[in-house]
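TL;DR need structure tokens for one chain.
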Amino acid sequence: MALTAPQIMVRAASAQIATASEVGNPGFCTFKLGDFQVTTILDGGRPSEGPHPTFGEDQEAGAVAELMEANFLPADQFVNGFAPVVIDTGSEKILFDTGLGEGGRANGLGLLRERMQAAGHQPDEIDVVVLTHFHGDHIGGLMEAGAPAFANARYVAGQAEYDFWTAPERAEGQTANAAKAVEANVVPLAENMTFLADGDEVASGINAVAAFGHTPGHLAFSVESGGRRLMLTADTSNHYVASLMRPDWHVRFDMDKEMAVETRKRIFDQIATERIPFIGYHMPFPAVGFVEKIDLGYRYVPATYQFDL
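>> reply
TL;DR here they are.
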């Protein structure tokens, strides 16, 4: 059985990640989707050991190593990127997720604010902040120096996600640290927050899609403008090889692993069948691409000039 390799160049993980300015990359990518302007922003990149057992937690290390090497990737290191998205609808600027914020800057992360400004989006111009879920790399940038980082924004999040993380029992055990971050970053904004369920509208053309499993209330978002479509998949898949070519493999950070598998297949079957481009929060930057169905999963195809035409 062949291990098909995505046609994308990915730099091997190293002890240091070059900054965007060092490699001549501004750390953002802007394109048109119908009447919308979409900007992906690199909050930073983090090298780690792995991808096993973070990815393929239920597999032998050798199987994961074989898949990585077949796809021109190192078997013992990987780079995790973080890509919030700004959509300018013409009437509102909508930010999806906020990166790691102040807590990530000592490690070269938390770059959303400076890079969105470089892309022409000032923090006080953001009208809506949408939270796909409440993991720290998505909510860490909500606060800046003890105050809301996006002073004029209203907030949108999943009702199921909020209910789960703010339940009293989350303050103990394995969920305690994450619940503490939610208490500090999300709860103070709740009075100005709209809560969504599957299918609910953020703005005209932008709707929530239930994508549970990674967290109990994890949401993807369907975007449509001028007859063109896009899916924001957030953390439905977190590695462009391990989680797409092998969607059945368990991922350490998926809270309900079997539900996450079912969600990956449902979401990416739709993306593949309907040939919809998608933005994945942890896909190789600029985090925009397509998938095609292959033997056991999906092949990732990065976007090139499709949005320029």
